[in-house]
Amino acid sequence: MEQIKTDSNPFFAGLRIGGAYDSRVGSASGGGDADGDTTFTATLSAGWQVPLKGDFGFRLDYGGYADFHQDFDEYNVIDQSFSVEPQWTKDQITVSMPLIFNYAMEDGDTNYNRYTISPTVTYLIPQTRQAVAVYGIGSKIDDRDDDKTLDEDGKTFGGGCAYLYFFKNKSRIRLSVDYQHTHYDAWVVDYGTDSVSKDDRKDDSFVAVVDIQFQLNEYFGVYTNYSFIHSNSNVDLYEYDRNIIEAGIAFKY
């Protein structure tokens, strides 16, 4: 909301470096030996907010994430995203339409491409340092795994909401809750289960996240976040609860 103003810096960049504990490494990749592990993590984000002319504007964003596991290095992830976001702003409300492309790699090999549209309504609560957002999620997953025995192309539909409280020194607290339903092309029987069903695999996931960043000065701070993921699926391999705790240092411009 601040960057939309014509007298604000339209560029943003941030880097987080830290460590995390994941209670179920490999669960999202179907690893039969999924277990807890610690990881080194790095997250880079950069964006350009075009100053608003009238009620319309847009922004461009890049996000990069990488992790390096202590024991399960076969699940090391590099995930990059690029987005274009048309916007319409009126008073305290911004309506936006992020168009996002994700390119994900696991253990150095291309895992999938994801194409997402996420219509979003953000409301800045008047005379406060708080904002709320409601958003939808629609994705197409293009599985690029080397293992061709499973065709895990899929489609995802869902949505979520988020709450943000930000302080005068630009520290912030963000809470979010998401729901996503994913329908894959792969059959249940393809996953080496006892089932002989040729039903397509279907997953339902619920994700809750608490993210806190405390600024020690304008450019440097510390952060911590906690994610809880609950997954239901008609393939037992993807039935799980997952806890991820992360903390580290943060740089921003």
Q: Could you walk me through the main structural features you see in this protein, from its secondary elements to its overall organization?
A:
The protein has 253 residues and is mostly beta strands. It has a single domain, classed as monomeric porin ompg (Porin), CATH 2.40.160.40. The protein has strands at 11-25, 35-49, 56-69, 77-90, 93-96, 99-106, 109-117, 120-124, 130-143, 154-166, 172-187, 200-215, 220-233, 240-252. Strands 1, 2, 3, 4, 5, 6, 7, 8, 9, 10, 11, 12, 13 and 14 form a 14-stranded antiparallel β-sheet that branches. The chain is globular and about 60 Å long. It starts with 10 loop residues before the first strand and ends with a strand. The mean pLDDT is 89.
From the structure above, extract its key features:
single chain, 253 residues, mainly beta, Porin, 14-stranded antiparallel β-sheet, 67% strand, globular
